[in-house]
Amino acid sequence: MVKKTIIINALDNVAVALTDLKKGEAYEGVTLIEDITKGHKFALRAIKAGENVIKYGNPIAHATQDIKAGEHVHTHNVKTNLKGELEYTYHKVETGLKPVKKRTVMVYPRANGDVGIRNELWVIPTVGCVNGQAKLIVETFRQKYGEEGFDGVFTYTHPYGCSQLGEDHERTKLILQKMVRHPNAGGVLVLGLGCENNQMSAFKESLGKVDEARVKFLVCQESDDEISDGVELLRQIAQTVKGDKRVERDISCLKVGLKCGGSDGLSGITANPLVGRFSDYIVAAGGTTVLSEVPEMFGAEQLLMNRAKDRKTFEKVVKLINEFKEYFIRNGQEVYENPSPGNKAGGITTLEDKSLGCTQKSGSGPVEDVVFDDGFVTSKGLNLLNGPGNDMCAVTNIAAAGCHLVLFTTGRGTPFGGFVPTVKIATNSDLAAKKANWIDFNAGAVLESDFDTQLEKLIDLVVDIAGGKKTKNELNHTKEIAIFKTGVTL
């Protein structure tokens, strides 16, 4: 029999509807006094005004009025407990993961010891002014030479690279340089204009030494025919890339990003906990996972801090959280202005509600390291990464930090994909059926079976994708980047 409601933690004073429920029906020993939409909460007992609403075993809000048993609990009768910056203390929680059976994956070895799960040709513009030329170079190359012998040729356009100052200019340059070095790229053509702030000479100097057979540069203002020259440079790169072959490696070679977008009331019950179990599996197998979306840690950050492997790492997590809060305050914005309208429609009430569900993706393992804007992920295990919650920016940041693919959970659905395979995991079976052209995996199935069964299926899927199976975003050609911007544009 399919469950219709769930109490996530024994301490909770609310339950969540797993399907639409009708007034007068009885669940969890309570008779509903109004209809409850799937993903939304109802009170398990009377909750007095000012009393905390408990979900996931933690407060997610306080009641703004008396709430009766069986009543809908949502934005109309509760309010967040969060405010301003907080003082944090380190209460280390010992986190031990069970040994797991390791798997192998078929990947492309790289000269620096890393591996790639794709062997693609990329054209990366240093400035938005040459986006059109980048697209023409790719289209002309495809028409003239095809894509046989490698995994495709793509360009990743953006509107930046000029008229930016300070931190924004550096972030643009760093993101693009990280992409040049990404192991999923067998070869890269870096395309500049010539007069932009993001000058090719400075770009090359700070990029450092590269394999000149795989990475080439072209400045359009210095070329009589940049399309012809760009196609020829891609042809030269392709000759090298075509020689790359997949080899078998332990699954611990993978770096996997963890992301959610368009969340609903089931995100923290099905998809995010499933991805958390996957994170624990990869970490136990010796691999790497990366959790970002810093604003969606607000309200659950102390739980992550307590999992820091040592005090130095704890202090990095505090820095990560407080600097992002300072960014909000510096721009005159409410730190806790979250969740989105779509989140609320799906049953997420406050930022604590969202964050406690969001951080389920991190599993239960220790936080090994924190990565800031200028870094790559180098530590095995669970890492936290600086960056916003915005889907496109977050996936770009996660991939640029070195992740081979991103597990992306969603309760509302989105077709977006980043420049690495972006695995869409539905929180509910209705979405998975309705948007089969977007969704790669249905985590809603845990409600009909169990987490262990679905975890094995998710591991199988990741192994297949690492070995070359295309995700829906790849099949739909939705591969984009978005560079996080905070400052002034001239």
Report on this structure.
The chain is of the alpha/beta class and 490 residues long. The protein has three domains: 5-79, Roll (Archaeosine Trna-guanine Transglycosylase, Chain: A, domain 4); 120-241, Response regulator (Rossmann fold); 251-475. The chain contains 13 helices and 23 strands. Strands 19-20-18-17-21-22-23 form a seven-stranded parallel beta sheet, with helices on both faces. Helix 1 (131-145) packs across helix 4, helix 2 (166-180) crosses helix 10 (391-400) and helix 5 crosses helix 12. The termini are far apart. The relative contact order is 0.14.
Quick overview:
The protein is an alpha/beta fold and 490 residues long. The chain has 13 helices and 23 strands.
State the major sheet: 7 strands, parallel
Question: Can you tell me the residue ranges where pLDDT is under 50 for at least 5 consecutive residues?
Answer: none
- As a percent range, the share of strand residues is 15-25%
What is the overall shape?
globular
Attribute tags:
490 residues, alpha/beta, Archaeosine Trna-guanine Transglycosylase, Chain: A, domain 4, Rossmann fold, 3 domains, seven-stranded parallel sheet, four-stranded antiparallel sheet, 13 helices
How do the strands and helices of this protein lay out in sequence?
Blueprint: E1 5-6, E2 14-17, E3 26-27, E4 30-31, E5 41-43, E6 52-55, E7 58-63, E8 72-73, E9 78-79, E10 104-109, E11 115-116, E12 120-125, H1 131-145, E13 153-155, H2 166-180, E14 185-192, H3 200-207, E15 215-219, H4 226-241, E16 247-250, E17 255-260, H5 271-284, E18 288-291, H6 301-305, H7 311-330, H8 341-345, H9 351-358, E19 367-371, E20 381-385, H10 391-400, E21 405-410, E22 422-426, H11 429-434, E23 441-442, H12 451-466, H13 472-475
Parallel strand pairs: 12-13, 12-14, 14-15, 17-18, 17-21, 18-20, 19-20, 21-22, 22-23
Antiparallel strand pairs: 1-2, 2-5, 3-4, 5-8, 6-7, 7-9, 10-11, 10-16
